[in-house]
Amino acid sequence: MCFSFVSACASASIAIKDDRGSEVRLASPAQRVVSMLPSLTESVCALGKCSALVGVDRFSNWPKSLDALPRLGGIADANIEGIVRLKPDLVLVEKSSPLIARLQSLGLSVAAFDVQSLADVQRTLRQLDVVLGSTESGAVWDRIQLDIARANRALSPSQKAARVYFEVNAAPFAAGKTSFIGELLDRLDMQNIATEKMGAFPKINPEFVVQSKPDLIMSTEASPKQLAQRPGWKSIPAIQGNRVCFFSAAQADVLVRPGPRMGEAAALIADCAMRSLPK
Q1: Whether residue 159 is found in the same domain as residue 271
Q2: Residues 107 and 168 in one domain
Q3: CA gap 193, 162 in Å, rounded
């Protein structure tokens, strides 16, 4: 008996429908995997299948054991020849990756994913379970949920009531309510100044932030000093009260990758609020 989005048939072959709607069929669980997206790399390892990875993109940097693997470039400069030489059973890519057609033309199996939300993370973990021969997706998902719930409980009602501006890029781009970061803020019952109609990661008019008067600012790029130098921003309550959290590069990786470390991301956000805001 075969199922709708995932199948495990009597012939022992396995198949999923990836996020293009394309069937990806393998004779058996993949033993040699190339991952060209950090969040997918992390998901493979969270499922206990790090040993199946034979190569990764240049940005995959967690866990530390990946340091020993060949680096195969990024979206714009992927080392196609290097990928082929590794003879992968499966290549994992982002849904819009320009690599897909070229890799398939060379006879490689490709699974493409579009991970933009918590629901996408759960679905992707389940699909990876199948192609990797893992059974850990449920446990990984449960840990994410427990970590988010724990972070929520750590916050006081007044900290949850604070107005938050989360900046993901100094252009500036914000984490909107419909982004995975926005979802985490919602799950923590925190008040995001970026509205739903703005989209997932809107480019923000700096004056909007001034007028919104956030009580707390979180940034993965711009330092508190750089934020204070923007015209009019010294009047923002968060900057006046020195309530700005600047995340390190390693912390930013956790925050901006929708994957198995989203529970850790929730903890980082909650810790920022607890350090910056009174109870």
Answers
A1: yes
A2: no
A3: 10
